[in-house]
Task: structure prediction
Amino acid sequence: MRSIVYCSLLKSEIGDILITANTSKLLGISFAEEVYTINENEITRYVKKELEEYLQGTRKYFSFYDFDITGFQARVLEEVAKIPYGRCMTYKQIAKRIGSPTSSRAVARAIAANPYLIIIPCHRVIGSDGKLHGYQGGIERKKYLLLLERKYTEIDTTC
Result:
């Protein structure tokens, strides 16, 4: 039996954001580099609404966390999801928190394959040198998201 994939497209200042889901789960969030046929469902519309609110500075937490991730990547991304809005952590700090203090590079690879951009905030992970390193959507988008969060945060940010 074939599975139907539903898509929503959110146009934003940092580019088109593609949201994909099947009938029961969110499949991914990515930056769209090509044109897609839009076929929305309840899940994609809900996530699109939350992303719009986030980009407007009115949402700091996402309520949609029914992800299909397992193994080491799941441990990494679960820890990344805990990074508070407007804050940053390093790859090394994530590695320590998941009990693998010497696996910073493996952590970086797991984060680089994050299928749920923005709602699992891999843009909040920086290098130990305090610099921005790698982001699926490009460093400029990572910088934009961090500056957006800084703008709507009442605390002094660490990144």
